[in-house]
Amino acid sequence: MRRNFAFLLGTVTGVCLTLVVAGPQGANLVAAAKAAARSDTYNQLNLFGSVFERVKTSYVEKPDDSKLMEGAINGMISALDPHSRYMNEKGWSDMQETTHGEFGGLGIEVTMEDGLVKVVTPIDDTPAAKAGVLSGDVITQIDDEAIQGMSLEQAVSRMKGPANSKIRLKVVRKGAAPIEVAIVREIIRVRPVKFRTDGGDIGYIRITRFNEQTTDGLKKALANISKEIPADKLAGYVIDLRNNPGGLLDQAVSVSSAFMNRGEVVSTRGRTAEETQRFTARGGDITKGKPLVVLINGGSASASEIVAGALRDHKRATLIGTRTFGKGSVQTIIPLGPGNGALALTTARYFTPSGRSIQAQGIAPDIEVLQDVPDEFKGRADLKGEASMRGHLAAEGTEQTGSQAYVPPNEKDDKALTAAFNLLRGVTVNANGPAMAKRAVPN
Predict the structure, then answer these.
(1) Is this structure's pTM higher than 0.90?
(2) Domain 193-424 in this protein, CATH class
(3) Per residue in 64-82, pLDDT tens?
(4) Which residue from 1, 217, 246, 304 has the least number of CB within 10 angstroms?
């Protein structure tokens, strides 16, 4: 209601303004305002030019012009939200490698927070995960070099490197003394989809990220599960999106489409008409309506939230776990020409099919399940989420911060996974979610 009122108030104000400036005198006022805005922009550009020239001519040592310009660009982009960034030629190349699913490095998804690198999530079965790097860890040093003052691209570039080379990270964890982690780099071949059958009646599918291979991997997993479990014995599927940091929008749409016959998956809304789009399901439900449970937590972000939101809004799945990260903004990749890299610019917000914004709010589960956190992880099992990031886009509603992101390494201790299996087998009933077929519990 408040949002509608604000919109109407803005509309009325606009009409009043039109009445005030109507006529030749009003036209002159509009022209004068535009001229003043242009003049202010030119003054700012002249100021930049003056500073640039003074640095070039007066700095104690002759500076590198290209480094000055890259620093200026990074400074400008840093005044925006935390997900907009400039990538030089190497950074742009590295990003393309990542989306293809193979690169040399540690295997962590990171972001920049308060001038330091924060781990969103370690990728399964990578050197970082094996070394014990956790979601929420803050990296302050790389090989004794302080990260403070580096851009995110510079820090990521230093963490990547040839296979079998060593790197040392200083890691700060909430409530614990800083530790040093030694890691040997590997060629990271991201396998975005893993699957297995559980108890002969449930298909479990783990999606670790959304890269160019995700949809194909999902389809192969579904085909293999259907071969192992006859349709009349298949109780349903568990889709595990926990600690999945997201990835490509088109992959989120096609993954959602694999479980939907029709309808909107997600919409985007920006300042321009081209950034306001609606994406719908295509191809039909591969599972032929089999029950779904989607596991989410504080490390489920971006594309993961799109999938969870679409399947929940269409009553296609029950969500179990904890509230998601809340990264509900769209970054458009804008190549800047040969040798100039690219710009990742936030251009729109995501909205679920019901019209709810994900940004700085996340998606709450239908059934909240908190894990039992071991003493050594207490105080650092939660992620603060998008709403805690400096400069984030404001939520369209009440912002939500903090959600558990811990997943027990032993599946016997995984309360969310157990709840998902029980729900599909009819042991528990969720009155808010889609109906589950009642079946006898296997002995």
Answers:
(1) no
(2) alpha beta
(3) 998 899 899 988 998 999 9
(4) 1
